[in-house]
Design goal:
By secondary structure, the chain is of the alpha/beta class. Helix content is 47%, strand content 9%. The chain has helices at 3-21, 36-42, 66-80, 116-129, 142-149, 158-170, 176-196, 210-213, 216-236, 281-288, 301-304, 307-320, 339-350, 352-355, 357-361; strands spanning 55-56, 84-87, 134-140, 202-205, 241-244, 266-268, 292-296, 325-329. Strands 2-3-4-5-6 form a five-stranded parallel sheet. It starts with a helix and ends with a helix. Keywords: Signal.
Length: 362
């Protein structure tokens, strides 16, 4: 059976099984008189405050392909009441093992078939949830994807990752052809995902590698490719989030200067990973001249504390938050976060500005 036939068959099976997903609607959000798509798009209008506070908490789903992936994303959206659907895809096929700087030239763009599974998931999520919520796939940075394609899974091979970092540091210029190849593939994916139904993209700037490559290597070698993804997303889609990965805590307020010229509708900064000093949510929003997504520590009260402790953290954040704001965390929540606890906190946040008008005005 050819790859094309296989993908067509898989698409047919997904479509046939979609009716099973309707059962998940039983846990739909309690308010029925609003549309989350419209509420999210309203956050782009910074001339007025948003009384309804949108919320985004995500996790890294175990399920990446087929109906299982669709179910996982729909279930999280339904159970937690978050305000948009973030689609993750974290498999990139090994290309060529890289041992010397010369090996970078062996990296080639991915075959278009690499993206078919993800595009099928986006299509099905658009069909199931597109009338209610924005569908926003994550796009990982060229550097992160490249290191994985070179044979080093970031989360599991610590020694291999350290060796890769050292190889890049030894000859940063040598990585350019490989970055070009991977970026070309990611640009293809962005355009095809938009055609498949994506409303925008969660552009994860530079992945996990800021700690090792901040400064000149980032600005002169990595940024042109990193920035290209944000440019293409802004060209094709109306709602894009620039996510600056937390990456080990080296970030300083000055580091943000590297990102001020990136496009993106929303900024998602590493609020709790500054080194030496910090910025408030209001200051970040003013600095980037766009709304901010964030505020909460992903390993904090929402994960480890009681619901009341999490609500107290929310109170403190929203009393100081910008007038137009999306509540969230610096990055993905731990995968074993309790969806029921997340839902109860999300419901609390949604109406916070209506129920706390007096304290918010102080």
């Amino acid at each position: 059976m050819s790859k094309t036939t296989t993908h067509l068959l898989r698409a047919a099976l997904l479509a046939a099984a979609a009716t099973a997903l309707l059962a998940l609607r039983a846990g739909a959000q309690t308010p029925t008189d609003y549309n989350k798509r419209e509420l999210m798009l309203q956050t782009l209008d910074q001339s007025r405050p948003n009384d309804y506070v949108p919320v985004f908490f995500n996790i890294h789903f175990k399920e990446h392909e087929g109906l299982d992936a669709v179910r996982a994303h729909v279930d999280w959206f339904r159970r937690t009441h978050v305000d948009f659907v973030n689609v993750k895809y974290e498999y990139f096929p090994p290309s060529h093992a890289v041992r010397t700087p010369a090996d970078w030239k062996r990296i080639r763009p991915f075959s278009p078939e690499v993206w078919e599974e993800q595009l099928l998931v986006i299509r099905e999520l658009k069909r199931e949830l597109g009338s209610e919520a924005l569908i926003i796939p994550t796009v990982f940075s060229p550097l992160r994807v490249l290191i994985q394609a070179a044979g080093v899974p970031l989360s599991s091979d610590k020694a291999g990752r350290a060796a890769m970092v050292e190889l890049i540091r030894r000859d940063p210029e040598a990585i350019r052809p490989a970055l070009e190849a991977v970026t070309q593939s990611l640009v293809h994916y962005i355009r095809e995902a938009r055609r498949a139904g994506a409303d925008g993209f969660y552009i994860s700037s530079q992945g996990d590698d800021l700690e090792e490559f901040a400064g000149d290597i980032f600005r002169h070698i990595l940024k042109p490719y990193d920035r290209q993804l944000a440019d293409v997303a802004a060209e094709v889609a109306p709602f894009n989030i620039l996510h600056i990965c937390e990456s080990g805590g080296h970030i300083t307020p000055a580091t943000f200067d590297d990102y001020l010229d990136y496009p993106g509708s929303i900024i998602n900064p590493p609020m709790h990973n500054f080194k030496d000093s910090t910025l408030t949510l209001r200051q970040i929003s003013e600095r980037f001249r766009r709304p901010v997504l964030g505020g909460m520590q992903r390993w904090g009260a929402l994960y480890k504390g009681t619901l009341e402790e999490a609500k107290a953290e929310v109170d403190a954040i929203l009393r100081e938050a910008p007038a137009n704001f999306i509540f969230g965390a610096d990055d993905s929540l731990p995968n074993d976060s309790d969806p029921e606890k997340v839902r109860r906190l999300v419901d609390y946040i949604h109406t916070w500005r209506l129920t706390h008008k007096a304290s918010a005005a102080q």
